[in-house]
Amino acid sequence: MKRSLHFGGRAVSLHFKGPVSHALVDFMFSNVPAHGPARAHITFSLEDVGGSDDLVFSAPVLKNSESHPGYLGSGVVRGPANQVVSRLLYEVDYHLADRCHSGLYLHAACLARKGQALLLPAASGSGKSTLTYWLTQNGYNYLSDESSYIPLYSQDVIGFTRPAHLKKNSLALFPKLETVPTQPVHWTDGSLLGWLIGTGALNPLPVENFVPIQSIIFPNYRAGSMLSYERLSPARTAFELAGCLTNARNLPEHGFPEIMRLARVLPAWRLSYSNFSQVADALSL
Amino acid sequence: MEVVNETFYGICEVQSMDLNAIPVHQENFHCEILDQEIILYFPDGGQFLYLNQTAALVWERCDGSQSINEIIHNLQEHFPEAADEILRDVVDTFESFLKHGCINLS
User: Fold this and answer.
1) Partner of A102 for a Cys bridge, out of A9, A26, A83, A169, CB 3.0 to 4.6 A?
2) Which long-range CB contacts under 8 A does B26-35 form with residues at least 24 apart?
């Protein structure tokens, strides 16, 4: 079987074989467009290993490794689905961003409400996915918990609608998660990293839906902190956005003109919080 | 791309900097002024730098016509109520500029 994944004006291809691989691909990518104008520039493979619970995932070895700074992948990984899945996500996201020239590929969650998008750019570990999941349970439609794309000259956003990845410490916050489709994610040593929450439980928007951005919030979970909800200046917004841009090297002037354009027109806040009642207060939910 | 956080912490070492040196912007940069703050973009390294209002005031004076001392005195004249803090703020700012390679001292 073959599945194309289109996002950010690019595409990657995934060949898969076997019922476990098939189920994993369906779980991971059912809300990612399978068709689009781009041709896949790389092909991955995922295959069941007969007589075991293992899968084998393989990604082509990149020839010019020096032109891929920070790339951690390529090669073959064998293991149970809960270990292979994080590598699969990494490779797909990396290679879509790596060739994206047509817009801003941001390390950002995004959600929609009443036809307008809320962008949540943040580094890993800031609580972005946990906040995203909570927002989907409080009136927002899910677009992505990780990667968002804004075409050049646009104020519309589309999300890479994969399952939301909650770290293990977040699970206790959501008792209802026991009743929704999930996929555990483990480190290669077998220890639990977290869970992927199926998009069906996230109130997703229909596939391929661009949404106009209403506002930007830079979230920062800090245990025990007081609520801080601070309006950011346009310059600060630009700086923070630049820090979440993953395809800067592909863009004219590293995306500087586009970052400045968005920072001038989109209102932005920094949200520091330690519990969701604070978030509800800040966002008037 | 490198994004540099300009937040200025720490105790400055005033003695370590030649206050008679004349600061000049690095040659290749783009500057956007937004509400008295500045975003600097250095195309060579793909580096962004955010300057708050204080740092922006200093940056705007790094045109090769004034020494660091003169910039300090100039700002103290403009903001006499903050004269005590200006010395430290300006030196901190220059230390950050130098650290990120966005000015040269002559």
Assistant:
1) A9
2) B26/B101, B26/B102, B26/B103, B26/B104, B29/B102, B30/A253, B30/A256, B31/B59, B32/A235, B32/A238, B32/A260, B34/A233, B34/A234, B34/A235, B34/A238, B34/A260, B34/A263, B34/A264, B35/A233, B35/A234, B35/A235
